[in-house]
Amino acid sequence: MSVNVTIRDVPNDVRDVLAARAARSGRSLQEYLKLQLVDLAYRPLAVEVIADLRRHAASLPPLDPQALIDDIAADRQ
Protein backbone atom coordinates (compact mmCIF):
# COMPACT_ATOMS: atom_id res chain seq x y z
CA MET A 1 0.00 0.00 0.00
CA SER A 2 1.24 3.48 -0.70
CA VAL A 3 0.42 6.93 0.63
CA ASN A 4 0.53 10.40 -0.84
CA VAL A 5 3.19 12.79 0.46
CA THR A 6 2.98 16.54 -0.05
CA ILE A 7 5.98 18.83 0.32
CA ARG A 8 5.13 22.50 0.55
CA ASP A 9 7.25 25.59 -0.03
CA VAL A 10 9.86 23.99 -2.28
CA PRO A 11 11.90 26.81 -3.84
CA ASN A 12 11.34 27.24 -7.58
CA ASP A 13 15.01 26.73 -8.42
CA VAL A 14 15.07 23.44 -6.48
CA ARG A 15 11.96 22.26 -8.31
CA ASP A 16 13.56 23.23 -11.63
CA VAL A 17 16.77 21.31 -10.87
CA LEU A 18 14.81 18.22 -9.84
CA ALA A 19 12.55 18.45 -12.89
CA ALA A 20 15.61 18.68 -15.15
CA ARG A 21 17.16 15.63 -13.51
CA ALA A 22 13.89 13.75 -13.90
CA ALA A 23 13.72 14.68 -17.58
CA ARG A 24 17.33 13.58 -18.15
CA SER A 25 16.51 10.22 -16.61
CA GLY A 26 13.41 9.87 -18.79
CA ARG A 27 11.03 9.98 -15.83
CA SER A 28 8.29 12.25 -14.64
CA LEU A 29 9.11 14.44 -11.66
CA GLN A 30 6.78 12.34 -9.50
CA GLU A 31 8.42 9.07 -10.53
CA TYR A 32 11.92 10.50 -10.12
CA LEU A 33 11.17 11.83 -6.63
CA LYS A 34 9.53 8.57 -5.58
CA LEU A 35 12.63 6.62 -6.62
CA GLN A 36 14.86 9.10 -4.79
CA LEU A 37 12.77 8.75 -1.62
CA VAL A 38 12.85 4.94 -1.79
CA ASP A 39 16.63 5.04 -2.26
CA LEU A 40 17.01 7.48 0.64
CA ALA A 41 14.83 5.36 2.93
CA TYR A 42 16.77 2.15 2.34
CA ARG A 43 20.30 3.58 2.20
CA PRO A 44 21.86 3.13 5.64
CA LEU A 45 23.06 6.23 7.44
CA ALA A 46 26.79 6.55 8.11
CA VAL A 47 26.14 6.26 11.85
CA GLU A 48 24.30 2.94 11.25
CA VAL A 49 27.16 1.57 9.14
CA ILE A 50 29.70 2.58 11.77
CA ALA A 51 27.63 0.95 14.53
CA ASP A 52 27.42 -2.28 12.48
CA LEU A 53 31.18 -2.24 11.91
CA ARG A 54 31.85 -1.68 15.61
CA ARG A 55 29.55 -4.57 16.55
CA HIS A 56 31.32 -6.80 14.04
CA ALA A 57 34.77 -5.72 15.23
CA ALA A 58 33.77 -6.42 18.84
CA SER A 59 32.91 -10.00 17.88
CA LEU A 60 36.38 -10.66 16.45
CA PRO A 61 39.19 -12.13 18.55
CA PRO A 62 41.66 -9.58 19.93
CA LEU A 63 44.82 -8.93 17.96
CA ASP A 64 48.28 -9.36 19.43
CA PRO A 65 50.48 -6.67 17.84
CA GLN A 66 53.68 -8.58 18.52
CA ALA A 67 52.27 -11.72 16.89
CA LEU A 68 51.46 -9.67 13.79
CA ILE A 69 54.98 -8.24 13.70
CA ASP A 70 56.46 -11.72 14.11
CA ASP A 71 54.24 -13.12 11.32
CA ILE A 72 55.24 -10.33 8.93
CA ALA A 73 58.91 -10.83 9.76
CA ALA A 74 58.58 -14.58 9.18
CA ASP A 75 56.91 -13.99 5.80
CA ARG A 76 59.79 -11.78 4.70
CA GLN A 77 62.37 -14.51 5.29
Descriptive notes:
The protein is an all-alpha fold and 77 residues long. It has one domain. 69% of the residues lie in helices and 0% in strands. The protein contains 4 helices and no strands. The longest helix has 14 residues. It is elongated and about 65 Å long.
Structural class: mainly alpha
Strand content: under 5%
Number of domains: 1
> What are the low-pLDDT stretches, counting only 5+ consecutive residues below 50?
none
Report the mean per-residue pLDDT as an integer: 96
Number of helices, counting only DSSP H or I runs of 4 residues or more: 4
The largest pleated sheet is described as:
none
Counted beta strands: 0
Could you state the order of secondary-structure elements as H and E?
HHHH
From the alpha carbons, calculate the radius of gyration and give it in angstroms. 24 Å
GO biological process, one term: regulation of DNA-templated transcription
InterPro entries: FitA-like_RHH, Ribbon_hlx_hlx
Protein name: Antitoxin FitA-like ribbon-helix-helix domain-containing protein
Domain Antitoxin FitA-like ribbon-helix-helix: 4-34
